[in-house]
Amino acid sequence: MKDFNTIIASEKPVLVDFFAEWCGPCKMMKPILEELKGMIKDDAQIIKIDVDKHQELAVQYGIQSVPTLMIFKKGEMLWRQSGVMRAPMLKELIDNYK
Hints:
Order of helices and strands: HEHEHEEH
Radius of gyration: 12 Å
Strand content: 25-35%
CATH topology: Glutaredoxin
Number of helices: 4
Strand order of the largest sheet: 2-1-3-4
CATH architecture: 3-Layer(aba) Sandwich
Low-confidence stretches: none
CATH class: Alpha Beta
Number of strands: 4
Largest sheet: 4 strands, mixed
Helix content: 25-40%
Mean pLDDT: 96
Number of domains: 1
């Protein structure tokens, strides 16, 4: 994976979705994130991190349930929440950090 720290150091907000392939609610997030991408265009980046493939990041960020969503900007975590969220709410959050 491209250097995670480089990605989250972006000047634009980065929404990180920590997920697992076996997780039902994580599967529900896929179309929501696709909808969100259409709403935010280039205002922010969305990346997905598979906690089973990137266990070191899951441990580093204390991921205990999936999906866990985080917003980073300039390397700093600005927001975090676990569970499924709707695209308009995520867009509103991202807009707050632009």
